[in-house]
């Protein structure tokens, strides 16, 4: 029986480590066309289950909603996501050296804050107030689980090159 396993994280997260055999289909890229291309038509006779995973499960739950809206059934969430898979001692496939998206965001935010302090002492004290905007953004990201900075960093060219796509498990 053919098993479909979709990883709905970003390309940089996928390259950092994914379940062997998982196909990358970012949550933002899920559409009727991309689903037909990756897993076939919905409700085909004898449709195999479609397993969905992400880092911890939140985005996979959102993906289930999108697949149900597109007519797909027989959907299964991988409990604990890729993190749970790795914590269970199961293997991950990694695609070369990659800095995680979380670390990239930390580097960007730290750099911006450092520049604001330097500019605050060098040019004008109003630069110190801009740090509050970053703090507010971090609070909102923590509350809503949506981080605009992460979305922006994920769109950078070095994070878009996959070179690690997988075929379905057989």
Summarize the structure in words:
The protein is of the alpha/beta class and 170 residues long. The chain is 50% helix and 8% strand. Helix 3 (58-69) links the parallel strand 3 and strand 4.
Unreliable spans: 166-170
Going across the biggest sheet, name each strand in turn. Answer: 2-1-3-4
Helix content: 40-55%
Question: Compute the gyration radius: what is it?
Answer: 19 Å
User: Residue-averaged pLDDT, rounded?
Assistant: 83
Alpha plus pi helix count:
8
How many strands, what sense, and barrel or not for the largest sheet?
4 strands, parallel
Task: Summarize this structure as a short list of keywords or feature phrases.
single chain; 170 residues; alpha/beta; 4-stranded parallel beta sheet; 8 helices; 50% helix; elongated
SSE order and pairing:
Layout (H helix, E strand, L loop, with lengths): L3 E4 L3 H6 L6 E2 L7 H8 L10 E4 L4 H12 L5 E3 L3 H7 L13 H22 L3 H19 L3 H7 L2 H4 L10
Parallel strand pairs: 1-2, 1-3, 3-4
Short description:
This protein has helices at 11-16, 32-39, 58-69, 81-87, 101-122, 126-144, 148-154, 157-160; strands at residues 4-7, 23-24, 50-53, 75-77. The protein has 170 residues and is α/β, with parallel strands linked by helices.
């Amino acid at each position: 029986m053919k098993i479909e396993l979709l990883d709905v994280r970003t390309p940089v997260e996928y390259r950092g480590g994914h379940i062997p055999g998982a196909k990358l289909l970012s949550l933002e890229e899920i559409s009727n066309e991309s689903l037909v291309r990756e897993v076939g038509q919905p409700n085909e006779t004898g449709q195999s289950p479609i397993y969905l995973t992400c880092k911890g499960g939140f985005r996979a739950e959102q993906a289930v909603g999108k697949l149900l809206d597109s007519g797909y059934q027989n959907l299964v969430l991988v409990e604990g996501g890729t993190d749970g898979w790795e914590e269970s001692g199961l293997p991950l496939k990694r695609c070369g050296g990659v800095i995680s998206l979380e670390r990239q965001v930390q580097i960007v935010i730290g750099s911006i804050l450092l520049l604001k302090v330097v500019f605050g002492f060098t040019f004008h004290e109003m630069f110190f107030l801009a740090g509050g905007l970053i703090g507010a953004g971090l609070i909102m990201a923590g509350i809503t689980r949506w981080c605009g900075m992460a979305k922006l960093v994920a769109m950078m060219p070095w994070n878009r090159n996959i070179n690690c796509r997988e075929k379905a498990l057989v």
